[in-house]
Amino acid sequence: MGIIVFYEGNNGTQNIVQTVEDIPGQDFKPVQNDEIRSLKLYGVRPGCIIKVYDSPDGSTNDDFCIINVKRDSPEYTVATFERSYEDEYAVVTFIRNNGLDGKVSRIKIN
What we know:
The protein is mainly β. It has one domain: Gamma-B Crystallin, domain 1, CATH 2.60.20. It contains no helices and ten strands. Strands 3-10-5-6-9-8 form a six-stranded antiparallel beta sheet, with no helix packed on it. The chain has a four-stranded antiparallel beta sheet with strand order 2-1-4-7, with no helix packed on it. It starts with a strand and ends with a strand.
């Protein structure tokens, strides 16, 4: 079972806002709205897809970011939701409107 930790600061810094397991089918509002700026993955399963949205209902007409886990890692940091990139562990896709860091209002995990 992998763990996903959402942080108030970029680069997995400042306060932990929320911690969840990587169980598929999750769709929730974070415990604190408009706080999350980054996350860390601890042993999260390959194929896990984490989506963070600016929109409280998960609409794709505002900023959103999709993190697709390719390989598990003991610890992996997604430093910002406002950059698209790919490495050996993840594909991160950011769809920009007016910025997402610190504005996360909905999270989906599959």
